């Protein structure tokens, strides 16, 4: 294998090595599933530095030609299409066309604030006088800084939380780096880390956030460069980090100064839990992403990113070669929404309504002996005996849910799950709980209170 790669490489730059290996994959010389030699072995064979080979492997991973599998090694992925490999693509693939699609993880449109008045108030939208204007409107910058749970060295605005995570990974993570995430985690984050060639290590959660014991073990065994977490309304479990847990985690992380902490506060103002951040304790290496899609509207496509100057400046500089900045018209709309008393009241009402929906369905499930996680946010994490059977059963009732498997970094040992967007369930909780209970139980299971009907009435 080493000799084959060495013979194919005529340009020993990172670009040249990546091109040579890509040609071998395209030609079928390196077939899908082939395990590649280690970075150090290839570097030694070619007489280049391991950094050069790591850069080449990173380019190949982003192109989808190879994939790292942690300690198992790096493998050729073959010619499968990128979409079939994405965890994200699996979430709603079985729910298309079902009458009640609860797989989406999106907010209830009717609980979002109306932006019509805000659009009128910002005038004709002539907010940009030059391509060299600051990327964030000054008044919005002040408002966002006041809202973040700690004072960041720098703050910028990007096109949503996932854009923020993508750009942070591009700056902070290199091919082969170990990265810690929650297990379960948000599938698109896992997709982004896979594309960057990172070796992902999952850390389990309890009711207060990341397990301190598990984090300590992962830090000591993997030498990671970054930790990604959701501080509240965790998707999919609904867990919110407590202030006490944040202090404990920060104390552990103090001994690992190389680790950059990235917090995705995606639920924002619809979260019932107060904002808690590791940045309160470790502000010099914490990045906080504040999203507004769930609370103020997905089409705003805006998120604030605050953190260390070196990292945020690198993100902003790289954006100059692409979009340059996020629409200042949308920024003005967001500023208006964040400071409008009417909008603040609307968002507070939505937060209370989401809490009511969660608590009502959780109570209905508990009465049927079915445990579930939905402490905060708009999602419910339902343990089931068999994921596939549960999804088929629910689909038979016209209900679409997301499979639990794409959320898992590695098998958690806690059994199968499905995720459903409880924030979209407005009423009919008893009917829905009957169906969910029947789907969660083993085949032939008959627990008390189960009276599922093929066509439930009164819920939507």
Could you characterize the architecture of this molecule?
By secondary structure, this protein is of the alpha/beta class. It folds into 3 domains: 2-80, Arc Repressor Mutant, subunit A (Orthogonal Bundle); 88-105 and 343-440, Aspartate Aminotransferase, domain 1, CATH 3.90.1150; 129-339, 3-Layer(aba) Sandwich (Aspartate Aminotransferase, domain 2), CATH 3.40.640. 39% of the residues lie in helices and 14% in strands. The protein has helices at 2-8, 14-27, 39-46, 50-62, 82-85, 116-121, 138-147, 161-172, 187-195, 212-222, 243-253, 293-296, 309-319, 328-339, 341-367, 387-396, 429-440, and strands spanning 66-68, 74-76, 100-101, 154-158, 178-183, 199-206, 209-210, 226-229, 260-265, 286-291, 303-307, 380-384, 399-400, 402-403, 416-420. An 8-stranded mixed β-sheet has the order 4-11-10-9-8-5-6-7, with helices on both faces. A 3-stranded antiparallel β-sheet has the order 12-15-14, with helices on one face. α3 packs across α4 (50-62) and α16 (387-396) runs antiparallel to α17 (429-440). Mean pLDDT is 90; it is low at 447-460. Residues 441-460 are annotated as: Disordered. This is DNA-binding transcriptional MocR family regulator. Pfam families: Aminotran_1_2, GntR.
């Amino acid at each position: 294998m080493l000799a084959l790669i060495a013979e194919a490489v005529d340009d020993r730059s990172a670009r040249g090595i990546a091109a040579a290996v890509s040609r071998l994959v395209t030609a079928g010389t390196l077939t899908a599933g082939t395990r590649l030699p280690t970075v150090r072995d290839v570097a030694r064979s070619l007489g280049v530095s391991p950094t050069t080979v790591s850069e080449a492997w990173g380019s190949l991973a982003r192109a989808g030609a190879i994939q790292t599998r942690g300690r198992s090694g790096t493998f050729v992925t073959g010619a499968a299409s990128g979409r079939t490999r994405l965890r994200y693509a699996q979430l709603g693939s079985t729910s298309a066309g079902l009458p009640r699609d609860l797989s989406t993880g999106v907010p209830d449109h009717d609980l979002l604030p109306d932006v019509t008045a805000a659009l009128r108030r910002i005038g004709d939208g002539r907010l940009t006088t030059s391509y060299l204007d600051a990327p964030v409107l000054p008044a919005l910058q002040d408002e966002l800084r006041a809202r973040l749970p700690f004072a960041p060295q720098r703050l910028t605005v990007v096109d949503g939380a996932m854009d923020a995570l993508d750009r942070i990974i591009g700056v902070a993570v290199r091919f082969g780096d170990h990265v810690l995430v929650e297990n379960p985690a948000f599938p698109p984050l896992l997709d982004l880390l896979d594309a960057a060639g990172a070796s992902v290590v999952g850390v389990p959660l309890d009711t207060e956030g990341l397990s301190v014991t598990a984090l300590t073990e992962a830090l000591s065994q993997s030498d990671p460069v970054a930790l990604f977490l959701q501080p509240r309304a965790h998707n999919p479990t609904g867990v919110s980090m407590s202030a006490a847990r944040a202090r404990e985690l920060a104390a552990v992380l103090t001994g690992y100064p190389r680790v950059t902490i990235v917090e995705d506060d995606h639920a924002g103002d619809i979260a019932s839990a107060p904002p808690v951040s590791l940045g309160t304790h470790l502000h010099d290496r914490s990045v906080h992403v504040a999203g507004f899609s769930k609370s103020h509207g997905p089409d705003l496509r805006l998120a604030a990113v605050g953190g260390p100057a070196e990292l945020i400046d690198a993100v902003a500089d790289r954006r100059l070669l692409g979009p340059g900045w996020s629409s200042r018209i949308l920024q003005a709309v967001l500023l208006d929404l964040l400071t409008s008393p009417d909008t603040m009241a609307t968002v507070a009402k939505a937060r209370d309504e989401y809490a009511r929906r969660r608590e009502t369905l959780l109570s209905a499930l508990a009465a049927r002996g079915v445990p579930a996680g939905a402490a905060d946010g708009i999602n419910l994490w339902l343990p089931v005996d068999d994921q596939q059977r549960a999804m088929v059963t629910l689909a038979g009732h016209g209900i679409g849910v997301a499979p639990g498997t794409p959320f898992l970094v590695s098998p958690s040992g806690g059994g199968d799950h499905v995720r459903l967007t409880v924030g979209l369930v407005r009423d009919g909780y008893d009917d829905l709980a009957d169906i969910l209970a029947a789907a969660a139980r083993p085949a032939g299971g008959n627990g008390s209170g189960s009276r599922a009907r093929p066509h439930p009435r009164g819920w939507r």
